[in-house]
Amino acid sequence: MTKTQLVAAVAQSAGLTKAEAQRVVEAVFASVRDALARGDRVTITGFGTFEVRNRKARTGRNPQTGEAIQIPAQRIAAFRAGKSLKDAVR
């Protein structure tokens, strides 16, 4: 499902226009993004949890030359599915 399809589905199920649904979807995404940028965890009961994880620095390999390169530590966004979502997918 693409973002456009998500907006259409939200509009249909909530009885909104596509423009209103677009603003709602964008607001939800912005809220999640802003919370993660602050280092907060976002838990949506019955769906899952978005969180920030720290990835350690490590040594990698350049696939073309085989040369060792240093990959710096970084923060990444991660999602862990909740039980209800896992059960629905099964």
UniProtKB/TrEMBL annotation:
<dbReference type="InterPro" id="IPR020816">
    <property type="entry name" value="Histone-like_DNA-bd_CS"/>
</dbReference>
<dbReference type="GO" id="GO:1990178">
    <property type="term" value="C:HU-DNA complex"/>
</dbReference>
<dbReference type="GO" id="GO:0006270">
    <property type="term" value="P:DNA replication initiation"/>
</dbReference>
<dbReference type="Pfam" id="PF00216">
    <property type="entry name" value="Bac_DNA_binding"/>
</dbReference>
<dbReference type="GO" id="GO:0010467">
    <property type="term" value="P:gene expression"/>
</dbReference>
<dbReference type="GO" id="GO:0030527">
    <property type="term" value="F:structural constituent of chromatin"/>
</dbReference>
<dbReference type="GO" id="GO:0030261">
    <property type="term" value="P:chromosome condensation"/>
</dbReference>
<dbReference type="GO" id="GO:0003677">
    <property type="term" value="F:DNA binding"/>
</dbReference>
<protein>
    <submittedName>
        <fullName>HU family DNA-binding protein</fullName>
    </submittedName>
</protein>
<keyword id="KW-0238">DNA-binding</keyword>
<dbReference type="GO" id="GO:0042802">
    <property type="term" value="F:identical protein binding"/>
</dbReference>
<dbReference type="InterPro" id="IPR000119">
    <property type="entry name" value="Hist_DNA-bd"/>
</dbReference>
<dbReference type="GO" id="GO:1990103">
    <property type="term" value="C:DnaA-HU complex"/>
</dbReference>
<keyword id="KW-0226">DNA condensation</keyword>
<dbReference type="InterPro" id="IPR010992">
    <property type="entry name" value="IHF-like_DNA-bd_dom_sf"/>
</dbReference>
<comment type="similarity">
    <text>Belongs to the bacterial histone-like protein family.</text>
</comment>
<dbReference type="GO" id="GO:0005829">
    <property type="term" value="C:cytosol"/>
</dbReference>
